[in-house]
Design brief:
Blueprint (H helix, E strand, L loop, with lengths): L4 H13 L5 E13 L2 E13 L5 H11 L17 H9 L7
Antiparallel strand pairs: 1-2
Length: 99
């Protein structure tokens, strides 16, 4: 998650430019959480980034480096199947190896 649509667009653009994901989708959500002893309620944007397993660690490191939160929410969900042409597209639009 990020704190605004502007930040979602900025981070999405960076990720795509680096070919760490083939696609980034984002939408607005309402979050309630505890942070440093206080309950926080605010609007955020959640991002879903489509990449291949071999790039997951690189993507997490990139997000951590380029994110404006002290502790960004980054959760990796494996793709266990899907429409093969779409999965092939993800593979073709992402890096073949780490930089």
């Amino acid at each position: 998650t990020v704190d605004s649509e502007g930040e979602a667009g900025r981070l999405s653009g960076l990720v795509i430019a680096e070919k760490l994901a083939a696609c980034v989708q984002y939408n607005t959500i309402h979050s309630t959480y505890r942070w440093k002893g206080s309950v926080v309620m605010n609007e955020e944007c959640i991002l879903r980034m489509k990449t291949k397993a071999a790039l997951a660690n690189d993507l997490v490191a990139f997000i951590k480096k380029n994110h404006n939160y002290e502790v960004p929410e980054v959760i990796v969900t494996p793709i266990t199947g899907g429409y093969e042409p779409y999965l092939t597209w993800i593979a073709s639009e992402t890096r073949n190896q780490t930089k």
